[in-house]
Specification:
Shape: elongated
Largest sheet: none
Strand content: under 5%
Distance between the termini: 19 Å
Helix content: 55-70%
Number of helices: 3
Radius of gyration: 14 Å
Length: 68
């Protein structure tokens, strides 16, 4: 897998994942929506750790800096 996520993108995803988890565990978001947010948060964390988003190649997006 070729990296396609830059550091800013990774940090934003990790921040959003943290917010989603906090919203779930403080019972602000519950039920099915809460479970969906936890799954999305997990995907955000996973993609941030590996620096690869599977949707980016499909959409033609690359936030990783160009290497010289």
């Amino acid at each position: 897998m070729k990296k396609n996520m830059g550091s800013a993108d990774r940090m934003i995803r990790l921040l959003l994942a943290a917010v989603m988890v906090v919203l779930y565990f403080t019972n602000v978001v519950t039920g099915t929506l809460g479970i969906v947010l936890l799954v999305v948060a997990g995907v955000f964390v996973l993609t941030s750790l590996v620096s690869f988003c599977p949707l980016y190649p499909i959409l033609g997006i690359n936030t990783c800096g160009k290497k010289k």
